[in-house]
Fold this sequence. Notes:
By secondary structure, the chain is mainly α. The chain is 75% helix and 0% strand.
Amino acid sequence: MSELKQxxxxxxxxxxxxxxxxxxxxxxxxxxxxxTEEVSGxxxxxxxxxxxxxxxxxxxxxxxxxxxxxxxxxxxxxxxxLAEAEVFARYQPAQLDDDALTALVNSAVAxxxxxxAPNMKMMGQVMxxxxxxxxxxxxxxxxxxxxxxxxxx
Length: 153
């Protein structure tokens, strides 16, 4: 079992003992998402990197749902979604600041472009490389915007 999954389970047990219903509920959902990923397709134990991808996806889902709820005047539901996203975000690595993100993207662009001039046709290759280098330290949307800006500028 991956260390990250073990930590999530241990934290869930601690939250149960502390009677923290919100945290327990959120961690149960996260554990269920991880288990679903493990049994879909070829059954296998997830690595820490795969667990991080699941966490990233779940955080993104919660934030999008919160945005939709806010737009439709359901702030109490939006707050609940954001609270879950915050619990999940505890297990993500620290997010890169803007300068570090720019440096990472510029490095990826230089690697892909080589001696040629960077252009938008390289977007997919640069995104793939930048996503590997970021390793969960940057949201996909932020990463995409930074790559577009680097390729256009």
